[in-house]
Amino acid sequence: MKIFISYRRADSGREVGRIRDKLMAAFGEDSTFRDLVDIPAGRDFRTVLEEETNSCNVTLVVIGPQWANITGQGGNKRLFDPVDFTRIEVETGLRRLATEESIVIPVLVQNAIMPSPSDIPESIATLTYQNAISIHDDPYFDFDMNRLIDAIKGSKVYAKMGFARKPFEPETIYVPKGPFLMGSDPGDGISVYETPRHEVSLSAYRISKYAVTNGQYHEFVLQGGPVNSEMNWEGRNVRYGFEDKPVTGVSLDDAQKYCEWLSNATDRKYTIPNEAQLEKTYQSSDGCVYMADHVYQWTCTLWGAKGNAPDTRYRYPWQENDGRNNLNANSQIRRVVCVYPKQDGTDSSRVRKRSGQFPRDVGFPGERHGFRVVMAAS
To answer: Global pTM?
Structure first.
């Protein structure tokens, strides 16, 4: 994560220091750049600014009451000078915004308001249409900064960012905190236990972009992980050409053992996702594509003792903290398995199908069980 802070010292220098401190606490010591302290001595500041603005993921344009009206020599507004550095910084951020390489967030301080398009050069007029966040002084400063941090973490740019993964570690995507609609409205072909459609709010999480592959699972097998005949391997080796295909025929018990191994091998805490996490990922604009592998996927969510319908206590409305996501529950309680329809126009009446399976089940032929991994995200 690289955040470029564009500002005018005479307009908002005091506020920028506090903003930068909060951003570094949230994203790391090397996450932010501002010209006053981050240009090394002896470097051409023009070159450094160009390098930084072209490599950032986020451009924050800090706007105080005088931002658009500060004048230079001759009394002309500095923003209308084509070589004004603030103007160049904003122009660069907006160009990268257009190519989805970065996001641009106006940050209003000292009770400033967004300038109108007519008050600034046409080349940066698009800035006025970007949703701004106001940062107030205490006692509201921390609250406002948390809103800004959440906005960055909730952006598509942040969702696409990864981290230094091990070669065998699944790629994950970021899903921001917040509500979504889960379940179905009553109708023909809709089981009563799939209703009602209701709002569920989840904390932020990262989930594997694709179902765990044979190749990724094989790394676990090399360290002593289990293999069974339903996985359709050649002994303890993946069939040639199937390395990048989802591993299937896996029990929940073995999937949990994989998560424990992966957590130890990466020093990150991976677990099996719950039903709501899979559902929210599927409903996101990018997640819908990623989930279209049509793999029957384990969740940690409890279903109940019988296969034909979930127990009453585990029916909708879905609750996060009522014990239904207990990974250590009795092995005689079934877990929810979900499958998501292929994106070919079939099965369009349902977002997904769900059933209850015992933790030691591996699925029926043609419906073998696979899984994703998930971890909490701040």
So the answer is: 0.69
